[in-house]
Specification:
Elements (H helix, E strand, L loop, with lengths): L2 H31 L12 H6 L8 H9 L3 H7 L1 H18 L2 H4 L1 H7 L2 H20 L1
Helix pairs in contact: 1-3, 3-4, 4-5
Organism: Dysgonomonas termitidis
Pfam families: DUF2752 (PF10825)
Protein name: DUF2752 domain-containing protein
Length: 134
């Protein structure tokens, strides 16, 4: 690969990373300033609207709002699965986008294995069923 191609790829990566950062900051500001439970700015869950039951993601917007205000207990009450999943999500982001896959290939292989994916799916399904039974 010549320098021009490598440089262009690097600029594209930086632009994408910058774009993602801008979207995250803008979204964070919106979620910090407005409460999803009180504002019509945020979409409602279609599954909950049609069935009256909670999906695994129900309460995630409120949980994000609470986390941004450092109200961990309220965030956990809104959606415990989201709060518990944050370390897993952050590790996966590090491994995928910040050089972790080169430093820790075995961890990445384990977190993205078929067994790990099925485990995450099972946890989501059990959470979905459990939150509607309690």
């Amino acid at each position: 690969m010549d320098r021009k191609t490598a440089s262009g790829g690097n600029h594209t990566y930086i632009r994408r990373l910058l774009g993602i950062a801008i979207l995250l900051v803008a979204g964070g500001i919106i979620y910090y300033l407005f409460s999803p439970g009180e504002s019509s700015l945020f979409p409602r869950c279609p599954f909950h609207t049609f069935t009256g039951l909670d999906c695994p993601g129900c309460g995630s917007q409120r949980a994000v709002h609470h986390l941004l205000h450092l109200r961990i207990k309220d965030a956990f009450t809104s959606n415990p699965l989201l709060v518990i999943a944050i370390p897993y999500i952050l590790i996966c982001i590090y491994l995928e986008y910040f050089g972790g896959k080169e430093k820790y290939p075995r961890v990445r292989q384990w977190l993205y294995s078929k067994k790990a994916i099925y485990t995450v799916l099972l946890v989501i399904i059990l959470f979905w069923i459990g939150r509607n039974l309690i």
